Amino acid sequence: MASMTINSVNFGTAKGVKFEYLGLKVHQNVTCVKPHSVKFAPRTLTVNAVEAHGDGPVKKMGKSDEGCEAAVVAGNVPEAPPVPPKPSAPAGTPLVIPLRLSKRPRRNRRSPVLRAAFQETSISPANLVYPLFIHEGEEDTPIGAMPGCYRLGWRHGLVEEVAKARDVGVNSIVLFPKVPDALKTSTGDEAYNDNGLVPRTIRLLKDKYPDLVIYTDVALDPYSSDGHDGIVREDGVIMNDETVHQLCKQAVSQARAGADVVSPSDMMDGRIGAIRAALDAEGFQHVSIMSYTAKYASSFYGPFREALDSNPRFGDKKTYQMNPANYREALIETHEDEAEGADILLVKPGLPYLDIIRLLRDNSSLPIAAYQVSGEYSMIKAGGVLKMIDEERVMMESLMCLRRAGADIILTYFALQAARCMCGEKR
Questions:
Q1: Taking a C-beta distance cutoff of 8 angstroms, is the pair 226, 184 a contact?
Q2: Is residue 42 a contact partner of residue 75, using CB atoms and an 8 Å limit?
Q3: Average pLDDT, stretch 311-326?
Q4: According to the model, what pLDDT value does residue 306 have?
């Protein structure tokens, strides 16, 4: 590529002129006995076009640092490329007087380096929690509505998936069990079986990876023959306090197996305080509680319920999950959960509820979690398959948006894929 270099530059000097070299700038101090007695000889400038190759190293002149400084002081300025010409505008561009703007925000966006320097929000694999589905079988069963996700065999497939995640910096997971139908009951007693699928899995993972952070789901729906998060009375009412009693036993069982964070997702009133008291009474003061503080009765959960085969047998979950139309109600839940002893507050779903994430962030000093749910995941996957969007770019943008809204951690089925992207791996 051709470039311009200065071959020779000579500046005349006059008696009584002294140059001092300070830092990277030459400061000229002029001293004279008679005013205006100092004259400068006309400078000569010769510029030639030469071939410059940016690939090779710059050839040194063979001078010492002192020699280079002396040459500059004497007026022998080293060769350097000239100021590049101003790029020309396309034909037809109007000639206008530049706008008199005191601020031009685009100045801070004009190069990748500047954009990176001024980026306000960052994301890393440490911000991600990987939701994993497990079952009693040996094989990994694909989930039709969630491309790339599987019900993992708890002995082998799960361990392998956790290893892959850890390799790219994701060291936090949350477990969701597919419970055999034969073990489901109306009161969900299997939820606190110390030898059940979840406690066994926790013990296996902690034996293999002691520093792995394991979150668990505290709710009855995977264990209930009715598919609801609580005990259902014969008239269809979800019983609150009786359900909380069961949830406390479930949380203690998970903590006993080695869970680091128990996560009540049921939305029963008062369950955070009750679970905290139950854990403390059993000596599990170190176990954290991540409360599903603002869990909405959303239509984005469909693929998840297919994964666990946990659709409600009748009705819906609107008597305990929040109305998607409500904003201020999230503050009530936030204040109650914080007062009852929650360590982390979670918003679910994620992207459709960015305003709620920001609301919790602005009103609580606790860590905020966001759950990018199955419906969000599946829509991005489907858009990518149909070539309607760039799946990887949309994935990363969606996660960044959740972080920007105020989420400290993000539960996402993209955790492994996104972490690989952050680490520069090819898909």
A1: no
A2: no
A3: 90
A4: 75
pLDDT at 60: 74
Give the phi and the psi of residue 179 in degrees, each rounded to 5.
Answer: -90, 135
d(CA 74, CA 262) in angstroms, rounded, equals 75
Instruction: Provide mean pLDDT across the span 413-417.
Output: 98
Q: Region 342-364: what's the mean pLDDT? A: 98
Q: How many helices (H) and strands (E) does the chain have?
A: 12, 16
Which among 131, 136, 135, 163 is positioned nearest to 148, based on CA atoms? 131
Mean pLDDT of the chain: 88
Res 413: pLDDT: 97
**Beta-strand runs (E) in 253-398:** 261-264, 288-295, 344-348, 368-372
The torsion angles phi and psi of 210, rounded to 5 degrees, stand at -60, -30
Tokens of 108: 């801070």
Q: Please report the pLDDT score of residue 310 as a whole number.
A: 67
Write out pLDDT tens, residues 160-197. 999 999 999 999 999 999 999 999 999 999 999 999 99
Give the pLDDT confidence score for residue 63 in this predicted structure.
83
| Separation between Cα atoms, residue 354 and residue 86, nearest integer Å | 44
Could you give the angle at the alpha carbon of 71 between the alpha carbons of 66 and 76, nearest 5°? 160
Distance CA 77, CA 21 (A): 13
Q: Which two tokens stand for residue 11?
A: 């500046």
**Does 348 participate in catalysis according to the annotation?**
yes
Preceding omega of 349 cis (within 30 degrees of 0): yes
Give long-range contacts, CB 8 A cutoff, 24+ apart: 234-237. 236/314, 236/315, 237/319
CB 171 within 8 A of CB 216: no
Residues 86, 10 contacting (CB under 8 angstroms): no
Residue 241 has, within 13 A of its CA and on its CB side, a CA count of 0
Q: What is the pLDDT of residue 29?
A: 44
Residue among 178, 317, 348, 381 flagged as catalytic: 348
Closest among 375, 391, 395 to 383, alpha carbons compared: 391
pLDDT of residue 80: 84
Q: Which amino acid is at 42?
A: P
295, 317, 318, 387: the catalytic one is 295
Residue type, 354: L
Told to judge if 295 belongs to the known catalytic residues of this protein, a careful annotator would answer yes
Q: Which residues lie closer than 8 Å to 314 by C-beta, 6 or more apart?
A: 226, 236
